[in-house]
Batch of 2 targets.
Target 1
Amino acid sequence: MKKIPAFLFIICLTILYCKSLPVLKPDNQNNAEHNTPFLKKAYRLSHSIRVTLPNNESMVAIGVTVADPEKRSIDAVLMTVEGLVLFDISYREKKVIINRSLPDFENNNFAELLFDDIMLFYFVPGSREHESGQNNDGFVNRYFCENNTVIDQIAFNNGSFEIKKYDSGNDQIRTVNIQSLNKEGIPEKAELIAYGFFGYSLNMELIDFEEIQTTHR
Amino acid sequence: MKRIVTLLFVIFSVITSAALYADDWDEIKNVAKDIKSVKADFIQEKHLKILNKPLISKGRFFFTAPTSLRWEYITPVKSILLMHNGRVKSYISGEKGFVEDSRSKAQAMGIVMQEITSWLNGRFHDDPNFKADLYTGRYDKIVLTPKDKSFLSIIQSIELEISRKQGIIKSVKITENKDSYTILKFSGINHNQQIDDKYYRDAE
């Protein structure tokens, strides 16, 4: 019997956390389309990443990413602060390649989840349909993506951004908060929150960046 | 995670215990016995295929025999590992100062205490986990390679470069594979100075 209230509590929490897709009003001046936080060129980026898990455990790692928005390719290495590489993975033509991984991280689902998050963060969503508008939050670019997911990218008047991802039931499953962009248009500090039973958050802070001509591999 | 932490602490132990030059393994044991404390700054270079220049981290460490250790990164990410009186704590810098890292990580660190004691006694040569070779040349070098093949897939070798003239470790190179290695360079090394226990008790 004790399990039932706990189960109901989790459902209530899940419902509370999952917000639904808001309605957009017209954006006649196309403010939204000119104001996005996504990468416009290929960059090599280093971040500190604080990972917080559902049980409130947290760890800090360093991530190096080569992201090419044109090719939609990513190379990513995550390592401990001490320099031990946890995994080294690539994404090419919608395929995940695990170059190196410690036993705790050698899981293809984990790698795919990670690339989904990285792409949400850096790339204009690959969508079959796109519309712009505004709501109470700000100017919104709405992308209708694969598997009937929807991604809203919101630009606020204070220069900050938000990216919200909704599942096929229009329940919000991810939020990315970007406080500001640097002169090159790269997010300096950002937080990604994954909702649901196995929710987690990633707090990312830019350490270094460098524009590159092509992906290195 | 336990394996990762074990590896990290083995690396730290190597660095803190082999701080003085010795001609052979017996002498290393004897020299290690004389080390009461070590304090030094370090620069860590992380070399990766994905990088065109190494990622630089800076920090400092304190060690007092037999098993008190503070390994602290100052840039780019502030983090501290503390070991004192059999307790191991890990801290990361948060918005409100340092906060304790995951409990499982700290618990796992406790498991490697016996391993650390072995290194601190200068027992490179009879360590069950690593094969140790001593090379002499312009600089002397201790090369450690894991005996366990599963360890070998994570770390291929740990090389300690020792200055005979100064009697100190110049650098440590930790090779994961041909595309990934870490070099630690030490400076401002002080041996056998009094180090306040507070450095091992608290992160701040």
Target 2
Amino acid sequence: MSSDFYTSFIVPYTSIIIKICRAYTNTQEDFEDYYQEVCLQIWKSNDKFRQESEWSTWIYQISLNVCLTLLKKRKNNVQHFVSDYLPDELTEDSYAFADESLNQLYDAIRQLSEVDRAVILLYLDEKSHKEIAEIIGTNANNIGVRVKRIKQRLKKLLDGKVN
Amino acid sequence: MEKSIEAIWKDGFLESDALVAPKLNNLYDQKSKHIIDKFKRMFKINLIAISIGSVIILAASFLVGIPVMGVLLFLIANAIVIVNRRLQKGLLKIKLNVNSYQYIKAFDGWLQKQLTINSKMARIYYPLIFLSLVLGFWFSNDIQDIIRGPNQILMVYGIPIFWGLGVLIISGVLSYFGGVIYKWDVNIMYGNVFKKLSEILNDMEELRA
């Protein structure tokens, strides 16, 4: 990867990668691994970008696909008795955000299914239903209902700390 | 008042530390390993394909009655495979316990050597491949019938002089441009890998400067 590529095509979109990788990992170490893998895959698949969608949509797609693949791989490696959803006290201190509300929101997001995590991350990043459907590969008509249900679930998980 | 999920998200990411990207420490290691592994894989597949192809051509040439061509092409293809297998051994000798820059530099050195040898060989084997095709057809029954037929080919001391001259010129051109044709051919197949390898090397050299 040339430094030009990293500076021009990845750096402006790091926030997308960070937000997604955070939702699929529980530790700083995993987060860094996932982040690195996403960057690597973006660089590797650069040639396949056909400009049919925006570059940011491409970044979302790759980030989500890489995270889902890595999560699947780790699930297969780790025995079933180890939960993917580590309780709060097991997540590293260094991994936490400075904003406590954001930490709680992320903890709740991590308890959602893989697909629901993707949907809510895209929704919170102000993507339209059409864009969410395009990135995830579903029907745009179902996204609205899904988002509503996920938000209700998050509110429940956050124990009424949100309105 | 309690915040909405959307507000928590928005406000949370306004914090300066929330979006700090981790350093990409091992990225070069992963990238170079990926590129080199990809090349090794392609190189191996290429040699296997040449070997299998030569056997198929050999068998087919006997079936269609041009065995001379099949045998010659088989010999040329296998000579290429043998030389490249030897070169491949050099690739395996590259030490893995060195840093990425040294590893990729050693690989680049091996690659340049491989390209130079193959490009020199190409100046010989491209005309030889052409000659095999010509000889194959020359000794086939169809051409022999033409030679003996009413539209006879002009022969001087048993040599088809005009045909021979044409073959000689084409062989000369193939020999002259053999190296260029090989590089063009290899670029079609490995061009992308070469480009990425050169990008990594330039990038690393820039960082080391």
